[in-house]
């Protein structure tokens, strides 16, 4: 194990995700076990620039494993995109004699780490924390499981009112450019149709499917719409149907509800494993790698590869969702 790492910093960046606190807890406690000093940086890269950094010990991360959001706060930093911003961030790390960093976030967070380490010689490792599950090199990202459970719970409630009124509902879920949340939520709620960014759905084809389900006396229908799909958002699709086919519907946008709440047991365990692995990876001399777990096994992927490789949706799951909704 490397002897040169004595102080590490941990931070969360980009959109918060349930389980980030559990990951920070695991980093702090594992680092403590190996006699490292840990510093928490508040508000991600923005806080790194502004010097928002504080020593953390085991008691600072007590009673947070169950908490949603991120106690270290987060931000999407514009300043860190600039060389001057990154220089200020480096000064903060040097002022606190930080030897290595653990960055918890999504692709934007990894991109920031990669660019930073091209100029500054500080080892970084990344932990995948985003509800979108769109990071290459891991089967699941921290927060995804909780987010789909939240969305499923919400849609189960919509089902009651959709059924009572025989209505068509469009329910929009997050995921940015990826359809993981929509696909898993759609399967889990028995959605009649799922609009995904990864599939090119023709709206007239969708209308035919809808009419087919009406003919077989399906009285209500719930359609899950991924925010990044090519036909526009749920409002746009509902408006198209009303204008061109006189089909009325209701729209629900689940929005940031999906990002909050206590992490599921799955996310807590995943976050704990990744936080523990992050510290061990640094001590073993790894740098500029993203951690992940694939098929139950720990995995390290260079930031460059994690950022530039698209994680593909499982095509068989898409086909299955279509068959099961017939
Ligand atoms: O990346 C997580 C995510 O929640 C996406 O699903 C969504 O598109 C985006 O962040 C929303 O970001 P913000 O909260 O900054 O509007």
Write structural notes for this entry:
The chain is α/β, with parallel strands linked by helices and 326 residues long. It folds into two domains: 183 residues, Rossmann fold (3-Layer(aba) Sandwich), CATH 3.40.50; 116 residues, Phosphofructokinase domain (Rossmann fold). It has eleven helices and eleven strands. The chain has a seven-stranded mixed β-sheet with strand order 3-2-1-4-5-10-11, sandwiched between helices. Strand 7, helix 7 and strand 8 form a beta-alpha-beta unit. The radius of gyration is 22 Å and the shape is elongated. The termini are far apart. The model has no long low-confidence stretch (mean pLDDT 96). It binds 6-O-phosphono-beta-D-fructofuranose (F6P). The site of 6-O-phosphono-beta-D-fructofuranose has 10 residues, from loops.
CATH structural fold name of the largest domain: Rossmann fold
Q: Which CATH C-level class of the largest domain is it?
A: Alpha Beta
Tertiary shape: elongated
| Arithmetic mean of pLDDT | 96
Number of strands: 11
Task: Give a topology summary.
Layout (H helix, E strand, L loop, with lengths): L6 E6 L7 H14 L3 E5 L2 H7 L2 E4 L26 H13 L4 E6 L1 H13 L4 E5 L15 H22 L2 E6 L6 H10 L3 E3 L7 H13 L5 E6 L7 H12 L4 E4 L11 H19 L5 E6 L2 E6 H6 L6 H10 L2
Helix pairs in contact: 1-9, 2-3, 5-6
The structure holds 6-O-phosphono-beta-D-fructofuranose.
The site of 6-O-phosphono-beta-D-fructofuranose has 10 residues, from loops.
């Amino acid at each position: 194990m490397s002897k040169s790492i004595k102080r590490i910093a941990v931070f969360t960046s980009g959109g918060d995700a349930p389980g980030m606190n559990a990951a920070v807890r695991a980093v702090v406690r594992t680092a403590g076990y190996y006699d490292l000093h840990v510093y928490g940086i508040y508000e991600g890269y923005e806080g790194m620039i502004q010097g928002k950094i504080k020593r953390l010990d085991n008691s600072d991360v007590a009673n947070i494993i169950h908490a949603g959001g991120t106690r270290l706060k987060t931000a999407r930093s514009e300043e860190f995109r600039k060389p001057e911003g990154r220089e200020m961030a480096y000064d903060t790390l040097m002022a606190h004699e930080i030897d290595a960093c653990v960055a918890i976030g999504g692709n934007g967070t990894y991109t920031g780490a990669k660019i930073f380490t091209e100029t500054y010689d500080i080892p970084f490792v990344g932990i995948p924390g985003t509800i979108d599950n769109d990071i290459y090199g891991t089967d699941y990202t921290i927060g995804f499981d909780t987010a789909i459970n939240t969305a499923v719970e919400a849609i189960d409630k919509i089902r009651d009112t959709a059924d009572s009124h025989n209505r068509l509902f469009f329910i929009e879920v997050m995921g940015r450019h990826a359809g993981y949340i929509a696909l898993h939520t759609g399967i889990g709620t028995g959605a009649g149709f799922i609009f995904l960014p990864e599939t090119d759905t023709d709206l007239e084809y969708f209308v035919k499917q809808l009419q087919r389900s009406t003919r077989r006396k399906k009285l209500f229908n719930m359609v899950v719409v991924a925010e990044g799909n090519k036909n526009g958002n749920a409002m746009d699709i509902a408006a198209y149907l009303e204008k061109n086919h006189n089909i009325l519907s209701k729209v629900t946008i689940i929005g940031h509800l999906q990002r909050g709440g206590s992490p599921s047991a799955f996310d807590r365990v995943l976050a704990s494993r990744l936080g523990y692995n992050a510290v061990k990876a640094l001590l073993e001399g790894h740098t500029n790698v993203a951690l992940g777990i694939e098929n139950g096994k720990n995995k390290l992927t260079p930031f460059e590869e994690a950022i530039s490789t698209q994680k593909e949706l499982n095509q068989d799951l898409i086909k299955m969702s279509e068959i099961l909704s017939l």
